[in-house]
Amino acid sequence: MGVLNVTPDSFSDGGRYLDPDQAVARGLAMVAEGADVIDVGGESSRPGATPVAPAEERARVVPVVAALAPHVRVSVDTSKPSVAEAAVHAGAGIVNDISASLWPLAAEAGCGYVAMHMQGTPATMQQDPRYDDVVAEVFGFLVGRAATARRAGAGEVWVDPGIGFGKTLSHNLSLLHHLGDLVAGGWPVVVGTSRKGFIGRLDPGPDGSPAPVDARLAGSLAGAVWAMLAGAAMVRVHDVAATVQAAVLVGDTRLSNDWDEEALVVPTGGVRP
Ligand code: HH2
């Protein structure tokens, strides 16, 4: 899943794709790099982000969804019903919901649904996140929410532990460490570690400041590979080409003990299915 933020203020790509033409070009470039889904978002959910009015978020997202939908599966990254509805109408096939509250809409629309866990709201979620048992609470919430969505009629339901959403560094690491337990719950798992702050904090510079956003590729790939090896069905990433290369390696390593060199050659410019 390639990340496409049509926002002025997203923590990593904010301001780069506010122009719809640039956003669509970036989406298509990620498809060429091997993304199966493009996740279009019109509101940053970084810690401390200011909410965007629904009309503004719709205006950012809808033209980009409509232009990309004929070419690739599109998800809309929103927690607002009216934005989700407009995006689905424009061709989005998945509602990616950081609030895990839009399942009735996804069930009604007959589209895919990602339920993500978040403690609090983006404005305040990183102030003092607390859990008695982060793994049990987050995974328990997700499995319950997925079952509720399925009972409501949602056909395709994914779950996502919400790395960085109301979680300390140690909460994030515990959730990743125990990801296999969430996979064992039977719902397809999505994981987004790409370029997130906890990677920067694990790799501080000499002055103690976290590695900046553009210096988190190695940690992002490690997070994606870790998630894939734990059985995640999808990783949400900014660096699609690099992640696809990592994914091919993970996939091929899992395939067999007896590799056929010929079958392993990737056609020029293409990504092996
Ligand atoms: N992370 C972000 C946004 N949406 N959705 C899912 N399912 N999982 C995630 O981990 C996730 C998400 C935050 O990243 P980004 O979109 O790059 O930044 P911003 O929220 O600043 O736009």
Average pLDDT, rounded to a whole number, is 93
> Helix amount, in percent?
40-55%
- Which class best fits the helix and strand makeup? alpha/beta
Task: Evaluate the radius of gyration.
Answer: 18 Å
Question: Ligands bound here?
Answer: 6-hydroxymethylpterin-diphosphate
| N-end to C-end Cα span | 15 Å
Taking pLDDT < 50 over at least 5 consecutive residues as the criterion, the unreliable ranges are none
Tell me about the largest β-sheet.
6 strands, parallel
What order do the strands of the largest sheet run in, or round the barrel if closed?
A: 1-2-3-4-5-6
Count of helix runs: 11
Order of helices and strands: EHEHEHEHEHEHHEHHEHH
Can you summarize this structure?
43% of the residues lie in helices and 11% in strands. The chain has 273 residues and is of the alpha/beta class.
Write the layout of secondary structure elements.
Layout: E1 2-5, H1 20-33, E2 37-41, H2 54-68, E3 73-77, H3 81-89, E4 94-97, H4 103-109, E5 112-116, H5 134-152, E6 157-160, H6 169-177, H7 179-184, E7 190-191, H8 197-202, H9 217-229, E8 234-235, H10 240-255, H11 261-264
Bound molecules: 6-hydroxymethylpterin-diphosphate.
